[in-house]
Amino acid sequence: MRLTISKSKNAEQLYITKSIRVNKNKTTSKIIVKLGSMASLLPQFDNDRDKVIAWAKEQARIYTEAEEKGSMSVDITFTEDKRLDMNKQNCFNIGYLFPKKIYHQLGLEEICNRIADSLKISYNLSDVLQMLISTRLIAPSSKLSSYEYASSFLQQPEFNLQHVYRSLDVIAKHSDEIQAAVYKNSQELINRNKEVLFYDCTNYFFEIEENRGNAQFGKSKEHRPNPIVQMGLFLDGDGFPLCFSMFPGNKNEQPTLKPLEKKILKDFKLSEFIVCTDAGLASTENRKFNTMNGRSYIVTQSLKKLKKFIRDWALDPAGWSLNNSDHVYNIHEIDEQLHKNSIFYKERWINENGLEQRLIVSYSIKDRNYKRAIRDKHITRAEKIIDKGAQAATRNPNSPNRFVTETNTTSDGEVAEKKTLSLDINRIEDAAMYDGFYAVCTTLEKDVRKIVHINKMRWQIEAAFRTMKSEFKARPVYLRNDERINAHFLTCFLALLIFKIIEERLGKEYSEEQILNTLRDMNVYKLRDLGYLSSYTRTEITDTLHDTFGFRTDTEFISEKTMKKILKSISRN
Q1: Which of 554, 559, 502, 549 is nearest to 523 (CA)?
Q2: Residue 176 and residue 541: Cα distance in Å, rounded?
Q3: Which of residues 425, 452, 479 is at a domain's end?
Q4: What is the chain's Cα-based Rg?
Q5: Per-residue model confidence as pLDDT tens digits over 510-525
Q6: Confidence bin at 81 (pLDDT 50/70/90)
Q7: What is the largest distance, in Å, between two alpha-carbon atoms of the chain?
Q8: Fewer C-beta neighbours within 10 Å, C or N terminus of the chain?
Q9: pLDDT of residue 434
Q10: CA-CA distance, 425 to 4, in Å (whole number)?
Q11: d(CA 207, CA 226)
Q12: What is the pTM of this model?
């Protein structure tokens, strides 16, 4: 900064000014503060012009020093009748800076640069991927809308929309490489619990009406009539995304586990771990695969699918235990108030399809009451279906319609002229038999409490899918070819990993919604070419974010120089 004296016919004005770069080849001077006229200042300095100038130069030095320390103050005059500059953007989102810092710490820029160099890509592949991840977190939408929204970020895109679509093809082809490298780098940022790996599948629907590539008609978990694509996802034991794969919507999900797990063994260099998954993915082949080379499994087990004598043993009210107790309980005789929060268990080894497994069955009064309440609501809805006289076609196991049966004959056994609907009492009673019971199979000989705890943590993978679908709006999918579809889900996967790291760094003190809304609302207003005014509400979350990430944007004013330092620090690993 420097002292500038503006002379006119009748007066001299003293200013502190600063050179501002407009573009690569042009600079301009901006007034930082108006010190006053020479005539008004002279009486304060014994009418000595040299003293006035010396004082003014000292002010310029003080302002320069303050800017370097990040403590600069600015005097600026606003005029009510002066209109804003035409087509000049003034408001910018800076919430993306926090996930961007983790993006760089995960080494994604280096990974992208390595790929770009090998393919001789002229545009900045890393900038595109970082934009796609940031917009997935801040303003999830289509690729076109994401590109358009990115102009609201403080750092403007220096690539074209065509580069976005070209990048999707590139990152899809290198998806496995990116996943493996990110996992390796992530170990420098977070502790990866490699003892347990959770696996599950979900599907995402398309806004199309015909099959295309991996988008095929299949069993939608959201009961939609649209084509779907399926995702298999592994999380580590602490709920951080590990890797994923995509497969056609009309394929059975059970065979998806082995190929992805083999990739973990090969590319991630993991060996001995426990795979935890639900019954739908726990085929005998998958179970046997996870008895090899020091691996093991914990899978939910449907009691209905067990052999009758084992199922009878599991449902027998006698022979139940509690942790830290040698007493053997009959669950029909327990004090339900005393044991309303207790979990009883029994166990045995079984041989199913040539596989020796430890079957652990638990019983919970709380779970029993919950299932009863849900079923009672379904029965009420089933009665309404009967009253309307029109049964839905679906026989979904979670639909109230499963408790409705059709009768085609009279009480005499004659063919009835019309069908009658009634409650299926046998089905209701059969469902009630299993209230409160839950079973898992494992090859582990660990303490029951440890096994039950691990299995309970499967909620994390369901929560991960829910986050991608709701907060990240991963569906509906608008892309057409499989490569770009895979790339879309890679950005969702990376966004999820980065978000989970942010969540971890904030001490898991805030909800998903609180964190994302905070990032989405963090805007600054550009104050001419001098710096920025924060226009968001300072909260406990914003304080924790700044304290954790090592930079501050929650001051009254952020000079251009300070903001450049912040941006530079974020780009460093």
Answers
A1: 554
A2: 35
A3: 452
A4: 32
A5: 999 999 999 999 999 9
A6: confident
A7: 122
A8: C
A9: 95
A10: 92
A11: 7
A12: 0.83
d(C-alpha 235, C-alpha 241), whole Å? 4
Q: Count up the domains in the chain and report the number.
A: 2
- Domain assignment present for residue 357? The answer is yes
> What is the spatial distance between Cα 109 and Cα 14, in angstroms, rounded to a whole number?
47
Give dist(CA 13, CA 31) in Å, integer: 12
pLDDT at 138 over 70: yes
Q: Is residue 190 included in any domain, yes or no?
A: no
Provide the β-strand partners of residue 362. Answer: 345, 438
Q: What angle do CA 408, 414, 417 make, to 5 degrees?
A: 55
User: Comparing C-alpha atoms, which of 152, 215, 140 is closest to residue 485?
Assistant: 215
Per-residue pLDDT tens for 456-513? 999 999 999 999 999 998 877 777 788 999 999 999 999 999 999 999 999 999 999 9
Tell me the helix, strand and coil percentages in the chain, rounded to 5. Answer: 45, 20, 35
Report the run of H or E that residue 305 belongs to, with start and end.
none
| Mean pLDDT, residues 367-388 | 91
Q: Both tokens of residue 168? A: 């999707």
- DSSP labels, 525-551: EEETTTEEEE-S---HHHHHHHHHHT-
Tokens of 113: 């640069």
- 434-450 in b/e burial notation, b at 16+ Cβ within 10 A? bbbbbbbbbbbeeebee
Looking up tokens 């959770």, which residue turns up?
198
Q: Cα–Cα distances in Å, from 556 out to 71, 72, 553?
A: 10, 10, 9
Tell me which residue of 290, 308, 212, 207 sits closest to 254, measured CA to CA.
290
Residue type, 3: L
Q: What is the pLDDT of residues 391-402, one digit of tens each?
A: 655 556 778 888
Q: Please state, in angstroms and rounded to a whole number, the distance separating the CA atoms of residues 251 and 547.
A: 47
* Alpha-carbon distance values, 298 to 225, 271, 290 (Å): 33, 16, 10
Q: Specify the pLDDT at position 264.
A: 95
Q: Which domain holds residue 364?
A: 301-452
- Give the DSSP H or E segment for 5: strand 2-7
Cα 465 to Cα 427: distance, rounded to the nearest angstrom: 31
Looking at residue 410, what is its pLDDT? 58
Give the full edge-to-edge strand order of the sheet including 2-7: 2-7, 12-21, 27-37
Q: Cα-flanking dihedrals φ and ψ of residue 349, to 5°?
A: -90, 140
